[in-house]
Design brief:
Blueprint lengths: L2 H11 L2 H13 L4 E2 H8 L3 H13 L3 E6 L2 E6 L1 H12 L10 H4 L4
Antiparallel strand pairs: 1-3, 2-3
Helix pairs in contact: 1-4, 1-5, 2-4
Protein name: Metalloregulator ArsR/SmtB family transcription factor
Pfam family, one: HTH_20
InterPro entries: ArsR-like_HTH, HTH_ArsR_DNA-bd_dom, Metal_resp_trans_reg, WH-like_DNA-bd_sf, WH_DNA-bd_sf
């Protein structure tokens, strides 16, 4: 992942409702969720949720598909993994990092 798409993804996640929406989509798995269930689960008005989903989709973090009269949203795991790779590229100066070492104060 290049810097500009990473910035777009991070900017999309840098808002409480969008972050909660994205985390819910990740938990839902590849099957995704209908917009109505997302709105109910997060207590968001449909118009607000629509705006947040558009921002996530624009950043490549979410995708939408039509299923009858419903729109199903799902997390784009490829973009998520690319963002994680971008953030951890050259982690620890190229040396292997261990989770236990990260939380150990020196």
């Amino acid at each position: 992942m290049d810097t500009k798409p990473a910035i777009a993804a991070l900017a999309a996640l840098a808002q409480e409702s969008r972050l909660a929406t994205y985390r819910l989509l990740v938990q839902a798995g590849p099957a995704g969720m209908p917009a109505t269930r997302i709105a109910e689960a997060l207590g968001l008005p449909p118009s607000s949720l629509s705006f947040h989903l558009k921002e996530l989709a624009h950043a490549g973090l979410a995708a939408a598909r039509q299923d009858g009269r419903f729109i199903i949203y799902s997390a784009n795991y490829e973009t998520m993994n690319a963002l994680l790779g971008f953030l951890t590229d050259n982690c620890c100066g190229g040396n292997p990092c261990s989770p236990s070492a990260a939380g150990t104060p020196e």
